[in-house]
Amino acid sequence: MTNNTFGTTTESVMHRDDIMGPGHLACAGCGIIPMLRLLLKVFGRRTVVVTPACCYAVVDGPFPYSAIGVPFMHCAFETAAASAAGVRAAFDMRGIPDVNVIVLAGDGGTFDIGFQALSGAAERNENIVYVCYDNEAYMNTGIQRSSATPLGAWTTTTPEQAPKAESKKDIGTIMAGHRIPYFATTSMAYPEDMLAKFEKAKAMSGFRMIHYHCSCPTGWKADSRDMIGLARLAVQTRAFPLYEILDGESWQITVDPEPADLQEYFRIQGRYRHIQPNQLTEIERHLDKEWKTLSRKASAPESSGR
Amino acid sequence: MTSPKPVAGKGAFQDSGVVKSVASMDWNPTGSWKYLEPFYEDWFAPCSHACPAGNDIVTWLRFVEEGRYQEAARSLLNFNPFPATLGCVCPHPCETPCNRKALGGAIAIQSVERFLGEYAIEHDVMPELETSGSGRVVIAGAGPAALSAAYFLRLRGYDVTVLDRPAGPQTGLLSIPAFRLPRRIVEAEYDRLRRIGIKFEESGPDAPRAPFSLNGHSAGLVANLAEPETEAIEGLHHPAVLDLVRLLDMTRHGSGLPSGRRLAIAGSRNDALDLARSLVREGHEVTVFCRDAKADASFSKEDLALAAEEGVRVEFLTAVCRILFDGDRLQGLICARTRNVAGPVYGRAPIRIVGTEFTFEVDHLVTSLPSPKNGSPFVDASTGLAPVFECPDSLDSASLGSAVSNGRKVAAEIHAHLSGAAQPAMTPVELRGVGEEIAKFKDFNEAYFRIDPGPSRMWRDRGERLRDFDDVRLTLSEPAIRREGSRCFKCGTCTLCGNCELFCPDNSIVLATDGSRYEIRQQYCKGCMVCVEECPRAAIHSRRAGVSVETR
Q1: Which CATH class is domain A19-299?
Q2: Which ipTM score applies to this complex?
Q3: CB contact set of B338 (below 8 Å; sequence gap of 6+)
Q4: Which of B1, B94, B324, B543 has its CA 20 to 30 A from that of A71?
């Protein structure tokens, strides 16, 4: 008997034993944890997680405690992908091939500070899974803008009078340019889709990247109870489309949601409180354009047959 | 906050087989951070709240959704002696407040009840018999409430005897015409009463009947049928004036029907509509005069609409005052408009408005005639020391649900008296332990529900209906019934959908070891309320955090 709201995959995965434990230091309503719990349930106990400076580096607990339940390595901000590649190399040298090496990094450690290490590891097709939980700013240092902060959003370094003028960096296209075997965007509001992508990534080898849209009630100035509602609206308004890219060339939109009003998404977040109607229209136009670009890539024939 | 000394090789890391170095964080009671705390509490579904018989509709719809009809029928039978009958004639107030209305129309609850009732008949599903009660109870009267009391006492394990008129218990509900309540259904449901061991005895062919003796019984119950109210009409003794109950009985046998074509019925209960609809099928032209306003009459809305469609005229706020006759022939009626007077003195009694009289030509008038006190059976309290209980009863099909509920309540009283255990009559929903609140659509998370239209056709076409006395209702097929089960929101009821567990950022929601419910580890819950927000159907709620947080 299944009463699960989302589907059989979600049901079967969520009833596996929790690897991650409680008592961690995340804010109430943190979007990292539900994703991380499922990620670990999919990848299992034979997993090592490497984390640069980011929210989760704090959330996990002060040394020698750790909530994550698997071996956990802190590394310098700019080195997550390189450190993970090193852990993988060490396992390979010792003849232990069956341990999953996962990077868990924020958007700062991925889009900005850790970018060269990420690019290098991707280019070398290191056999790791890189999970970026993207809460769209440097949250644990005090909500400073990152290159993942979306157009028009408030942060402490993009104040209301001068909200972010640049759009979110298109990390998917950049990673596709590295021709990595797998790249996927995920959202906690669509767990069935997310788990399918985790399973797919687990079944592959080489450089796999998961880009998770991570609700941050603290940094987005939203009610913690809306954590999932925000994630859902981000997908529905196409502010964060769900898609995957195989081998850098085969694009697929995996969830084509019922559309929702961008205003509804903005209304429940303090970081968009300053948005004026003309700005809203501008942002809507920008998101439409991005969606069209994505749709075009997703509908392109797989081989050009030259 | 005291943290334990980390011990190498302990905790979650022991079985990873990779590295053993650190200890977990589960010593950290993050529950102390919260201002609000979530708690589970099932709330009333609006359907159950509106059900006069107190049925736990959500529970059987959950079984129906999974195709577990046997369990659904049994859970229904445990609290309802006549599910198929009620599935035919109940005016289903349950469907009016259904939250599904907002997204595709109310659940066809009555059709599901009928389906389960018929399933129980066909597959011989029986209610669960207990043995907690012992003793003999004698019940005078065999109306729906009396039979309901008999049923619930029997389920408790009592030896129950029902005293009835010689025709047997069927006389009660069988007066409802077959196009509303197929005969085989009533017969099968009465038969079930016998089969669970209720004894029926005739209390004598002649009225008034002898009082029944309490000798050898532990308790008695008198459940007399309410005598139909007689309207004050001049000239009621005329032979062209017919008794409503008798005529209803005649239409059932198809004999002794009036010869005149035009008939007027004075009455404001559903049986007046039943008779009108029967007579229309026999080719008569029928007008019903109801003294009450439409809102006050005890007609079921649905039957009223069907009657109108079938050609019955209903005049509200109109009273028959006087009968005009010429020898044996009835010439016409003097009628007058009425108005309702609300107030402590008059209650709802309508008052005729002077000057509004008009003449109405008919061949016959049908109304409830004063019946000779043919006597309901009564108890001679001097024959024994056993206590005698009383319970109102009525044959009005619109209040059958209340009759079932009254019977259950008095049965609980009798059981409490005889067993010495003070047990209030609880509806199945109350027994399930629901809170006092009713789950409303605004309490739900709309993201989890889509528009899903319900069955569109419920009735046979008018022309076809008028040709016979067969059931006017179209029964839903098994897949359609099952669909109703899945369309049901299960308002206010935890279905273990798992959203709360899935989304909890603090690993605070865990399935109980027996798998029957979720529990909250308040010592870790930081009070984000994501679980409350993402519960589709208002089964988890928030309140101010308790003063003390368990810290192990």
Answers
A1: alpha beta
A2: 0.95
A3: B291, B317, B318, B319, B350, B351, B352, B353
A4: B1
